[in-house]
Design brief:
The complex is a heterodimer of chains A (291) and B (591). Chain A has a domain at 14-216. Chain A has 291 residues and is mostly helical. Chain A is 71% helix and 3% strand. Chain A has a two-stranded antiparallel ribbon with strand order 1-2. Chain A starts with a helix and ends in a 14-residue tail after the last helix. Chain A contains eleven helices and two strands; from the N terminus they run ααααββααααααα. Chain A has helices at residues 2-32, 39-56, 61-84, 92-114, 139-161, 163-173, 175-180, 185-207, 217-232, 237-257, 266-277; strands at 129-132, 135-138. The model of chain A is unreliable at 286-291 (pLDDT under 50). Chain B has 591 residues and is an alpha/beta fold. Among the domains of chain B are: 18-251, no CATH class; 381-392 and 428-588, Rossmann fold, CATH 3.40.50.300. The chains are: A mainly alpha (291), B alpha/beta (591). Chains A and B meet through helix 4, helix 9 and helix 11 of A and helix 7, helix 13 and helix 15 of B.
Chain lengths: 291, 591
Amino acid sequence: MDLFLQLLFTGIGIGAVYALVALGFVLIFRATNVVNFAQGEFSMVAAYLMVYFAVDLGWPYWLSFLLALAGMALLGVIFNLGVYYPLRHRSYLPVIIATIGASILLANSVLAIYGPQPQVLPGWFETPGIQLGPVYLDSQYLLIIGVTILLVIFNFWFFEKTLLGKKLQATSQDKEMASLLGISVSTMIMITFIYSAVLGGLAGLLVAPVLFVSIQMGSTIALKAFAATIIGGFGDVTGAIIGGLALGVIETFGAAYISVPYKDGFAFLVLIAFLIFRPQGIFGERVAEKA
Amino acid sequence: MSASENIQVPAPAIRSKPLLLRHLPYFIGVAIVVALAARMQFDGYVHNILMQATTFSIAVFGLSVVLGLCGQINLAQAAFFGFGAYAVGIGTTDWHLSFWLCLVAGSVIALLAGAFLGASTLRLGGHYLAMVTISFQQIVTLVMINAIWLTHGPDGVSNIGRPALFQSSQSYLAFCVAALGIVGYLVWHLPDTRLGRAMRAVRDNELAAGVNGIDVFRTKVYAFAVCAALGGLAGGLFAGGFAYVSPDQFSFAESIVFLTMSLLGGVASPIGSAIGTGLLILIPEWLRFLKSVPGLYLAIYGLSVILIIRFMPDGIWGFVSNAFTRLRARAKAPPAVAALQLRPATTGGNIVLEVTGLSKHFGGLKAVDGVDIAVRRGGVHALIGPNGSGKTTTLNVLSGLYKATSGKIVLDGTDITNMAPHQRTAAGLGRTFQNIRLFRSMTALENVEIGAERPGNTMIGKGDDALTERAMEALTFVGLGSRANELISSFSYGHQRLIEIARALASNPTLLLLDEPAAGLNSTEKLELHELLKRIAAQGLTILIIDHDMTLVSEAAQHITVLNFGRRIADGESLAVLRHPDVVSAYLGSE
């Protein structure tokens, strides 16, 4: 039972990271109808930026954190202008391939600079954690869960209660109509990319002290996050969060009770099972092409 | 029944020489290259590069089928390549099996894995497929590294055997080149086969492919399985050639390398695939110094993927061949053909289409609510109603794009209520779309050929010539025969509508559904359309037409059904229905 609770806590912590990246996937998908395969690399790049500022240059942690996020915002701009925007009138396939190219480019550029050796980023807190009854609550995991909850609330408020959020929603639902109403569609898409890059970056910064900072962390997280979006129901914000948490828990239990080397395989098995038996996910995707 | 009909379709020779004879130069060329590979002396380094280029090309041919022809993405080609390689590797060393058996087994395993992966994902959008293939690739890599009892783990498998017939590396290379020649021929010829046309139709427009009798899902699974099987075959040959395999040769990075090769050369053609493969094997050899910095080399691949997609979407070969086809299309004049014969199938009843109690609800919205329609044989029946009355929804339920909430649809004695769109087409339903859905990368003739290829079309004989013949007749019937070899984009809007009608006519349907055919046409074109409808009806084909143009409807249709708010408000002879007070008030409002 103690082990069960401990694993549950860890699973939710990891799942929260998947949920954050999944959220980035969903936002870009809703705005552009394109799955951004470089979403995971946003997390990886942010973690390396943090390593550069905080470890290599030795700057204060909070400053490095803000600089890393600013760097992600910039990357979001470059990504939109260099990868998505020139292809926006083409079908989804060229765009998907271009984002895959961007993912390869980002991962291997970092590899060329930092080499294959994983980097270590110290945790955010002096105290490693607190003991609560039988369960040891690692402070970094607590932080991840806390930030995720705050972000979900912020996300809801931003999209439902602010004018900018409503404009973004209008753009994602009907670009032509939105532009006729005087909304600048290209600005909205730019904001979406910046927001998603920062969100993905934040997930990377939060999880970096728990995992190693490595080239592979991006693609690993992206794979899980994508599986999470399918499990939750593609294009659905709540689904992405629930799916992410569920996947984190499944994976942690799978590693503990079934097999450690194949830990990264469980996400895939769950994904295949969902695709076969419930492809619309828990919350259902709105997929229908008009005849 | 088909025998007597076939006699009436004359078959003048469109292609003068038999296929194999026309392609003889290709086989002579392959034979010369194979002979060169068998005779010429290479040093080990050149030999290895040739070996790699040959086997990789076969794997990239697979991508040209799935991505180029069918428009589906596969990011796990290296995994399928690995299946073949490990089957030959483990089979010939640990299990002492024959090379041939292992080669076949590896291809079959890859084929089955590809078919399973495709079958579980291809019903969904393309982005699912991309991510699932990435996941699959990573799982396969995990297994290759961790299942040491089977794969020897990271150490890999060495001392892999070759067939007794091709023991020397020289003769083995010649054998692989021959395999490349044969596979290349098949892939090159595939677009002109029934399956290949279906793949291209699916790539261009899935909905239109479905209502033209193509099983979209099955076509995609086939494309995916063919791609995987070619990957497996290539991997098996690769393992024999290098005698050593290890997991890093089949990683995700290699899948990306395959993809880049395919994109660079031109994804639509095997020649492009071979060019891309050759270049991407040679260029890194020339730029060896890049390999000293880990990552740099793949980073450049990633960048080139972005640049190729943006600036050269058809690849090197696509660029060359586009210019080439433009010249050729102008030179070839389409042959004259006989008049189009329509012989709608009949089981003898007076009613061709009987719809009873048809409903389609979207959540609480009753778009179509308990509608009855009886379409009499041999006439023009119009379905009209104000905007939002449920006309197009009805048509979409009839052709199977939407599933009926309740009710029954019987076409010429066959209950088609629960059939998929392509099955309804096979049962004799033809349709056009309000917003034209043609296969945009194909010529007018090829579009109509896909219609003519409907399963159960009794009006075409066997073989490609009969198919082309039928399609030409249909195009000539709508007045566009002389422009058969032009691409869809060069036709005006009105002409594109006519091509869509020709595509449906070529399939010799039992019932033709026309969804607002007059929308967007000018008055001359409308007159031409009216004439065309008369000529179609004169051949005994029943038409169910939806349109807003009251002049067209009242002149062309003998029978009218009127919908409003999803319900039938009037039904009967044209003139009587148009004077019906409910109809007048629905269109003009009541006092």
